[in-house]
Amino acid sequence: ALRELGRIERTLFILDWLQSVELRRRVHAGLNKGEARNALARAVFFNRLGEIRDRSFEQQRYRASGLNLVTAAIVLWNTVYLERAAHALRGNGHAVDDSLLQYLSPLGWEHINLTGDYLWRSSAKIGAGKFRPLRPL
């Protein structure tokens, strides 16, 4: 009975899919966001070619949790700076259409050095609650 109910639900969804351009657009956008998140995770997890080789389940879980934590930190960083960039544009007199902001994604990582040298200079410390300056236009 549950299998037949699932088939009915799937058939109704397919009919809606065929009739509604907006539904197809929303589903496609959702799939793109999922793919972008997976691409970010693959970029962060470049070592060992994306394979988790730990033997114990607990160690595998730690590694996967660490990957999720780093990915979430990148998304948070990008979200904060995208918001600051929009406010800076408005502050400089540029028109920012709020309806277009929904199409921005914090899942980009091209501006983050995932491989290379990291310099931690004590003179470059930023105080609590402060941010690095935005790049000029």
TrEMBL record:
Annotated GO MF terms: transposase activity
Domain Tn3 transposase DDE: 1-118
Organism field: Salmonella typhimurium
Domain of life assignment: Bacteria
One biological process term in Gene Ontology: DNA transposition
Cited InterPro entries: Tn3_Tnp_DDE_dom
A Pfam family of this chain: DDE_Tnp_Tn3
Protein name: Transposase
